[in-house]
Amino acid sequence: MMSEQPAVATPVARVVRLDRISIAALCGAAVLFVALAALPFVFAGPVQNALTTVFLLATMASMWNLLAGYAGLVSFGQQAFLGVGAYTLLVAVRAGVNPFAAVPIAAVVSLAVAVPLSYGLFRTRGAYFAIATWVVAEAFRLLVITVPALGGGEGATLPPTGLDPVLRTALTYWTALAVVTASLLGIWLLLRSRIGLDAAAVRDDEQAAVAVGVRASRARRVPYLVSAAGFGAAGAVLFLANLRLEPASIFNVNYSANAFFMALIGGVGTLEGPVVGALVFYGLQFFLADLGAVYLVLLGLLAIVVMLVAPEGLWGRFSRWTGVVLFPIGYRLRAGGVHRGRRRT
Questions:
Q1: How confident is the model over 148-189, as pLDDT tens digits?
Q2: CATH architecture observed for domain 18-329
Q3: Helical H segments across the chain, by residue range
């Protein structure tokens, strides 16, 4: 005979993409965006300039992390697209285009330039790819120097916009906020798509990924093109903020090195890490830049300490300890309560 036993509680697990923490983080990010958008009505130029710099740093760090952390492409030549974006804005403004409306044009032109470059660069791998990207950036710098219409080696100044300086500062701030928001949101959506999954698979094991049908070339090319567009937009905003453009400055490899440093400090392969790294980098720059060469030594020591103590980065270590992921990419297993049922014997 079958008899029923008392109810037994059985744990139930759920497969989710967004849990309560990540939903709260998305809501918090939306509130933060609104607050930052309203900031120019409360705070003056110096605060806006500082946050504009932070936004640009976060954009560059996140775009570099998209390449290295998720697509496995370590590049030290992304400054090439900073320069392309900046000089595109210069040409557009001289042609009569509103300088702030020219920022999306700079992103599109940078993406277009990256398309033919990718077919040559992707014939290399590893360190050869990193060196090849740096060589391309240097070639762009030398090319710009030979064009007198772009200012040659002396560079160029942004043509007068006729805007009040206070309004120009605010518009530059809002443009930088739009660029960093679009960059972070675009990266998050890309990585949650099939292409993001393919890129991670190719990064981890290209042969195995190809064996199961992943198109390795597309999985690498799409993140590369997105990163180029992001750096191009950042270069255009950088020109808007500084009002002065010089080949030796805009094509400087330090931009890629700084992006690498920020991603490393915050956590390569995480969405939140580059933003944390950008905040840390700006703080160090703000408080220690007056120390000259000592500042660079301190940056190097900090990078070494982080690699030894927390190779996953500051945010990576925090996330591993707490299990907190603010903006998850894949699916995760979460407890969903208990199921009470009766056992039959």
A1: 988 888 888 988 877 888 999 999 999 999 999 999 999 999
A2: Orthogonal Bundle (1.10)
A3: 20-38, 45-65, 79-94, 102-121, 126-145, 165-191, 194-204, 206-211, 216-242, 247-250, 254-266, 272-288, 293-309, 313-322
